[in-house]
Specification:
By secondary structure, the chain is mainly α. The protein contains 9 helices and no strands. α2 runs parallel beside α7 and α4 crosses α6.
Amino acid sequence: MDGEARPLLEKVPRHRERHFTSGEVVRDVIMGVSDGLTVPFALAAGLSGARAPSSLVLTAGLAEVAAGAISMGLGGYLAAKSEADHYQREMKREQEEIISVPDTEAAEIGEIMSDYGLEPHEYGPVVDGLRRNPQAWLDFMMRFELGLEKPDPKRAWQSALTIAVSYVIGGLVPLLPYMFISTAQNAMLTSVGVTLLALLFFGYIKGRFTGNRPFLSAVQTAIIGAVASAAAYGMAKAVQS
């Protein structure tokens, strides 16, 4: 019997897992680059609409990129730090409950298992096994009862740096034409074309990484950036008139 089973097992093709596991980093990059492309672009377009010289547009744009990178990075740091603090508070509370009311917590394991269609005689050994391993029990309750994943201790600084650098990279794109073209109106037209191409490219890459349709993501990202810059340009023209 074993001789017949072994060849069958050997014929099973090897399966390679292709799951994407860097969602948090991609989210930070998307947040930084998308804001970096649209906000300085809208600012530069608005100043160009007010007939400001290229040097002034460039100076204001670079100042905005610096301030925006710091602000966005700080926001990413605080968000990740708050998430880590929340996890620690909930873990401490859950640990106290496991010690003070173990039977109640064990019953909650059964409730969680039953939601997956398991019968008491099937999940009973699992409950007993977790009760013998307090750390595994705590990890199980944090993940399946509270739906919380343990955050990376370095997550806050990584998030801040990723968002800030991404914002700078995105923010420099619409400002590049103003470095080489002295007339703001001409620089703005070039900036529009360069930024729209960057938005399309970024949207396409974003769609590939997030599992959405790349071309649709590219068009949506470009439209959002175009609407933001058109609104700023229109407001500048209205104030000027």
